Amino acid sequence: MSRLHLLSAAALLLAVTSASATSFVVTTDAVGRATAGTSDATSDVSSDDDDDNKLLLEARDDAASFVASEGAIRGAHLEAALVHLRGKHPQLAASDLQLAQAILAR
């Protein structure tokens, strides 16, 4: 009976390890896609002029709160920056979260 328990434990350990590895790969892929989206948004946002830089600098604290709260806290400076960026770059296909992350990455 002891050998059966040992084999069962080994099989269970193998199954758990496999599930953890799969979960890690899925998480890593999701983070990679989010980072790629943020990089694209950052490069578009980084090419702005001095007035834009001032607006985006003022929005940093609001952007940090927005990202940390997963979108629950939306400050006035961030809202102004998002409206400005979307108006200036209508081709920009980034979510509010990606733009907030791009503002923080500047």
Order of helices and strands: HHHHH
**Poorly predicted ranges:** 19-28
Q: How many beta-strand segments?
A: 0
- Round the mean pLDDT to the nearest integer and report it: 75
Largest sheet: none
**Which structural class should the secondary elements be placed in?**
mainly alpha
Number of domain units: 1
Shape: elongated
Beta content: under 5%
- Per DSSP, the total helix count is 5
The CA-CA distance between the termini, in Å, is 63 Å
Rg, please? 22 Å
> What is the subunit arrangement here?
single chain
Pfam families: DUF2388
Protein name: Holliday junction resolvasome, helicase subunit
Keywords: Signal
InterPro entries: CHP02448
Task: List key phrases describing it.
elongated, mainly alpha, CHP02448, signal, 106 residues, Holliday junction resolvasome, helicase subunit, 5 helices
Describe the protein.
This protein has one domain. 81% of the residues lie in helices and 0% in strands. The N and C termini lie far apart (63 Å). It contains 5 helices and no strands. 18% of the residues are buried. The longest helix has 45 residues. α2 runs antiparallel to α4 and α3 packs across α5. The protein is mostly helical and 106 residues long. The protein is elongated and about 75 Å long.
